[in-house]
Specification:
Bound molecules: adenosine-5'-diphosphate
Order of helices and strands: EEEHEEEEHEHHHEHEHEEHH
Strand order of the largest sheet: 8-9-10-3-11-12
GO cellular component, one term: plasma membrane
Main location: membrane
Family: Belongs to the ABC transporter superfamily.
Shape: globular
Number of strands: 12
Keywords: Amino-acid transport, ATP-binding, Cell membrane, Membrane, Nucleotide-binding, Plasmid, Transport
Pfam families: ABC_tran (PF00005)
Number of helices: 9
Strand content: 25-35%
Length: 255
């Protein structure tokens, strides 16, 4: 039996007086495609940001790929992680954000090659070869020398996906990646994600309001409300036959 690649155990996250996650536990198996859905403010993005080490936790334990995140085992006890450890953990996870976050003064190719060259010491020629393969995969090889400002939102988001993939992460996190796009540009980004899901064995966690896409993409759907998992299950169960009233109310409003 395979071990979970992500294990969250009793996670508490507070922002000042506000408790955003209140004893959250969940596990994700290697290769699993997970959709996190639920009302705004229920803590979905916070979970992704914690996994990406962009936020720390107020309590609990997290294991990613067998290693503790934020705490390391030393001489049998857990001590806070140092920067080197966090750096190592960050390489296992790629994240794509709602607002692309491309480097505006770098061309598309440099956006994709920068992290492998700087953080992994990959030679420019090898980084560029890999970047061109990834840009080809997202349908943007011909834009390698363009600047981000010359691209549409959908194209920028596809570059951001290629950039996250350049470090060959085991886990990819997608945070409402189509929310900032004009409706006609959404599908080109979803198509890239469909392809990734079909052609790779990466573990993928997706926060989304695109319920149709979540249904087709996910192996499992988690419905969050107020920092807790209210209901989880196969897409058909959650979308067609939810048992919890809060899930039913949410889906009635959104679909
Ligand atoms: P979701 O992704 O489900 O919409 P979030 O994880 O973004 O929810 O936010 C959960 C709650 O945490 C919200 O109430 C939000 O306002 C709050 N929050 C998120 N980030 C911060 C922050 N940096 N400082 C204070 N509050 C925050």
């Amino acid at each position: 039996m395979a071990e979970p690649i992500i294990r969250l155990d009793n996670i508490v996250k507070k922002f000042g007086p506000l408790t955003v996650l209140d004893g959250l536990s969940m596990e994700v198996m290697p290769g699993e495609k997970l959709a996190l859905i639920g009302p705004s403010g229920s803590g979905k993005t916070t979970i992704l940001r914690i996994l990406m080490t962009l936020e720390t936790i107020s309590g609990g334990f997290i294991q990613v790929d067998g290693d503790h995140l934020y705490h390391m085992k030393k001489a049998g006890s857990l001590v806070p992680a140092d920067e080197r450890h966090l750096h190592k953990m960050r390489e296992k996870i790629g994240m794509v954000f709602q607002h692309f976050n491309l480097f505006p003064h770098k061309c598309v190719l440099d956006n994709v090659t920068l992290a492998p060259m700087l953080t992994k010491g990959v030679a420019r020629s090898a980084a560029e070869k890999r970047a061109m393969e990834l840009l080809d995969m997202v349908g943007l090889a011909d834009k390698a020398k363009s600047m981000p400002a010359q691209l549409s939102g959908g194209q920028k988001q596809r570059v951001a996906i290629a950039r996250a993939l350049a470090l060959s992460p085991k886990i990819m996190l997608f945070d409402e990646v189509t929310s900032a796009l004009d409706p006609e540009l959404v599908e080109e980004v979803l198509n890239v994600m469909r392809k990734l899901a079909a052609e790779t064995d990466m573990t993928m966690l997706l926060v989304t309001h695109e319920m149709g896409f979540a249904h087709d993409f996910a192996d499992r759907v988690l419905f969050f409300d107020r920092g807790k998992i209210v209901e989880e299950g196969k897409p058909d169960h959650i979308f067609r036959n939810p048992t919890q009233e809060r899930t039913q109310t949410f889906l009635r409003k959104i679909i």
